[in-house]
Sequence to fold (536 residues):
Amino acid sequence: MSKSGYPMLGQLNPLSFLQAFIVQSIKVAGQFGCSQEHDRVRYIERMGLAAASCLETAARAERSLPQDMPLNQEQYASLIMDIKNQIGGEFSSTSSGAPYVRVINHRCPFGEAVREAPELCRMTSSVFGAIAARSFGYAKVELRKRIAANDGVCEVLVYTDPAVAHEQPGDEYQIKNGQVYSSLASTDDQIQQALVSTWCTNNLSNRASPQRARAPIIAQSTAMRAAFRTVEIVAPTTASAVISGETGTGKEIIARAIHALSDRSEKPFIAINCGAIPESLIETELFGHERGAFTNAYQVRHGFFERANGGTLFLDEINSLPIAAQVKLLRVVQEGEFERVGGEEPLKVDVRIIVATNENLDLLVRNGKFRRDLYYRLNVVHIHLPPLRMRPDDMSALVDHILRRLSEKHHHPIRILSSRAWKQIFAYDWPGNVREMENLLERAFLLNTGEIIDTVIEQDAPQTMSDCCSLRALRRQKGDIAESRLLHESLRRYNGRVSDVALEFGVTPRAIYQKVKLLGINLQEYRLDDSREPLT
Fold:
């Protein structure tokens, strides 16, 4: 056991590790997640839906039950009790012959912490509901009694017949196109579910690294929600995509989300940073080489395209790709074939290409630094990720996620931020985005001697950090500034086309016109000048 009391990875089988991970994550989220109960409930619901598939897969494997066989009511009741009891409860079922599954529990898996954060019960509802929906197509879960509400017992009713459940209270779960939807889950919830499910499946078969697949999906802000809506639409297609944004904004996370939600999810996902490969080696790395192609080429080398065959190839910092390599890349995109360096026979390949850039590709095309024909081939779908300073609504959830992960990494109980530290978080501009936030929080986590972190940013602005400035006022001010910047940036990117801006934000054009009027923006300035690059 670790010093914090949580089991270590090496001491657990995959099911037990996943359960311990979920218990720790949800416990921390409930106590320290978001400032509002509604936010915490939504967060726990999102995690529960994501975890349910993994838990069910592992539990079925332990029982030698086929993964694609619907459970009957008795099997379902037994399965959910096993899952919850392995986490640490005392669940039993008393629903034989009833039109529902009734489960009672006298010892909560979350212990006394559940009384301080009653929304943790959402975990039980979402796990039970998601597993039921996959077998029966529909479920409604009623938390009739809760230990968290001092009822002395946990009593849960799960209805699987919509006709019977119609007049009953509770939260509904339905299966659509293989995904579980709940009354609280939104688009980004489904993406998170797909990613965690992919990690779970790969982990059980020892095919993937959990650390790489368990990337955070934080989408409270309007811009990030719009990005995830685009991800959900484009993922099932074969279209290539360009993801733009500053360094550290999470472009690879978006690429992995597209892959996880596609029919290529069981195939390789290979990520390459084009800017990290020397120009003399870029073609060999991408396309491979034949034996004897050059000095020291003693054997055939398979490039990234061959290794990604059937899956997804993510080319980060595509803006740094040399022109010569761009010519070869264009051929792969157009014809689906290429030749190894020193080779004469064309090789066929089926690869979905997703690229990312931290520069304005449109501007590079105009300056002759990026091929126009390649740009139009790749830019079928454009997803822009705003910098962290323009996403104040995401900061709380990001901080909480990072602190939980640091607690796991360093085997230390969770630490929380003081009011002063939160003010620093919202006042700072984060030029290094999420990556900088991770580094600064880890330093503060390690150097702090107590359970409350009082300082995150060493050099802060006294006028911004004064006690007279409330955290709520600071957050509102930061949000207004970010909203204005984000709108200006989008108008520049789309040359003042309000319909395109509205589509990106997921609102009506009328809403954009109203905001433009409120901020006193002159749309003609953007429509007359097409050469401006996006604001940074």
Summary: Residues 1-35, 201-215, 460-469, 529-536 have pLDDT under 50 and may be disordered. The radius of gyration is 25 Å.
